[in-house]
Amino acid sequence: MPELPEVEVVRLGLERGVVGREISSVTVHHDRAVRRHLAGPSDFAARLRGRTVTAARRRGKYLWLGLDSGDALTGHLGMSGQLLVVPEDKPVETHLRVRFVFTDGGRELRFVDQRTFGGLFVEEGGAELPAAIRHLARDPLDPLFEDDRFVQRLRAKRSGVKRALLDQTLVSGIGNIYADEALWRARLHGGRATEDLTRAKARELLGHARDVLSESLAQGGTSFDALYVSTEGVSGLFARELHAYGREGEPCDRCGTPLRREPWMNRSSYSCPRCQPRPRHPR
DNA sequence: ACCCACCCCTGGGCGC
DNA sequence: TGCGCCCAGGGGTGGG
Q: Which CATH class is domain A4-132?
């Protein structure tokens, strides 16, 4: 569920909560949480012990902490991951996966993840940009994101518009919620063919995606339940400002037509039947 | 090079 | 009350 705004809220919390601090010990409670670290959990912990966190960075939905060793502690929250900065005497969470203690004796960092789709790993020399996420495009809130290149690559695809928005190598940070919201704002059905969009329409869609991401970030992100929270355990407020996602049967905020839900790639898409007519041959 | 199906996982909600 | 099914879904991987 965490998409760009939710991950950025977590990054800001890490910047305030752990940058500049030295890690004294790391305990892995669930091996699956250290998934892409080939050398295993004990090596993972050893590479972090004694290291000072120098930066908290993000690209799309990936986060990483730069370390004074030049390595990067990289992670993805998956569906249900949380990075919490909490007092060390706080009772342990049911789904605690990894625990980071600091030499200053202050609040500790906990990776909590119910569904275990998330994971952490240490990449040697990855502090600037981990190689494992170099294939990701920049996200629409990145000052170096190239709008023209996005428009060009989108229109060169032979795919559906929603598929394209979720393609993290084209534009990163957008998931199912914000894709549906951007499409609603652009009055486009997600099954529209990418190559049929005009340059102007593609540019407009990108603008809506950027708007919805930054508006959500300003509200602390979208939370439907306790599964997405900031490092302080606080839920975001943007769910009440969604126009499409999760609103099947409710009236469209533009035209009043009841919104529909369509099965799509083993999940759901929400849209307005009137503002976002289905194309003859959906992609 | 690109596209897509498959698989990983848990718990809340709901029907019977 | 309890069981079993469905749903939430991002991304890596491998096949076409």
A: alpha beta
